[in-house]
Amino acid sequence: MADASDGERPFTPPYPIPHRSKASLFKRFLTGWNSWIHTLFERSYTMQMGEIRLPRLDFFIANDLSVVERVMDDREKVFPKHRFQHELLDPLIGNSVFSANGQDWEEQREMVNPAFAHTNLKRVFPAMQGAVDDLLATIATMDRSKPIAVDPLMTHVAADIIYRTIFSVKLDQASADRIYHAFHRYQKNIQPGAMLKLYGLPLFGYRGRAARAAAEIHAVFGPIVKARYDAWHSGGGEAGNDILQSLLEARHPASGDPFSYQAIMEQVSTIFLAGHETAASAMTWALYLLAECPHWQDALLAEIDRETGGQPIAFEHLRALGGVRNLFRETLRLYPPVSFLVREVTASTTMRDKLLHKGAMIVISPWLIQRNRNNWKCPHAFAPERFDDPEEAEACRRAYMPFGKGPRICIGAGFAQQEGMLILASIVRAFRLRYPDIPRPEPVSRLTLRPKRAVQLWFEDRR
């Protein structure tokens, strides 16, 4: 694969230039109004453990990898997901397997585990391939005499893939657009609401507006869930072969009770959100990075042609596409879709000579850990080949966590990598990408990491 030794200088993609020193509470409030990562200062990227005192909360940012592993592995069972994260996500996913803690989480996880058999990588490949073929057909019919907005396209294809996996039906364009715009509104409202909550201020209607945006997303698939739920429980429905069917059949390990309709909606919402929003974010950034690095496009195309022999990309080909895999992994390192993971201290403890009182928040930030120069060489540079570098093997093992770590690591990590590789390889084969002569995209971190404005790219036919 091409790298800096081929005469190409490493490309450093955009990220917010950190403040020289820690900002005041007021300035942090203003910058955090739109994006978490814009509140960071220079030492945030190198410190082992930081501490911030807010009016209603003490929180600590842990970058020391031994502390990170202690918190994320949580063998002591004293670092559950923080209630603050639940408040951010409650209008979207309620009390689901993502947000639950303790025994409730263990029981929910046991109930939903059979559903994830439907995300078996070989089993789901045809659905992924169908959605990708539709994506390529859509791009081919678009007006490409001008740059195309990538974000809505990636949201549609990622949402379509998980939609087919959950419900066995395709996601139409109108519904995809509705989801894209509604989730954008949700993020724009929940972020200020979060800052107001942290500072103990009134919410001024932000949470209500976020809840209305969440309801619009639920309205897209709610009717499908309701119809199948009613049919199944009345005994008149045919058994499907998808995630929704597994949730309908699930039973509580102790009581034997099925999920209620509301509980199924919460689980479906979680799987749908996790299955499309994070993937769409990653693929948007990956396409931008490729557009800025034409030599990488050439190298990946040569790899794809060599491994496929010019045939359609099949499930068996993906394992051999190491360059495409490294592109996806490097994108997730530079732009982790979920940039901050929050845990709660439920028993006072000491870490790195700091006393953490019960109720404090511990922040584990993939964004910071994956850009820390103590972990990585040239941490802000785009260098997919680093994942084949023996000198960075330890960092890849311990300091790479876009899907989290420990028992609550994302169960869909393999699913996301397969869909990302298939989409990126298919686009590279069909189109040459160029970035227009406009300012570079600015990442903003709310619930997920997205460009402030939709990424625009030229798509040129390779034929």
UniProtKB/TrEMBL annotation:
Binding site for heme: C410
Source organism, top-level taxon: Bacteria
GO molecular function, one term: heme binding
Cofactor or coenzyme needed: heme
Pfam families reported in the protein's UniProt record: p450
Keyword vocabulary terms for this entry: Heme, Iron, Metal-binding, Monooxygenase, Oxidoreductase
Keyword match Cell cycle: no
InterPro entries, alphabetized: Cyt_P450, Cyt_P450_CS, Cyt_P450_E_grp-I, Cyt_P450_sf, Cytochrome_P450_Monoox
Protein family: Belongs to the cytochrome P450 family.
PANTHER family on file: BIFUNCTIONAL ALBAFLAVENONE MONOOXYGENASE_TERPENE SYNTHASE, CYTOCHROME P450 FAMILY 4
Protein name in UniProt: Cytochrome P450
Organism: Rhizorhabdus histidinilytica
Higher taxonomy: Bacteria, Pseudomonadati, Pseudomonadota, Alphaproteobacteria, Sphingomonadales
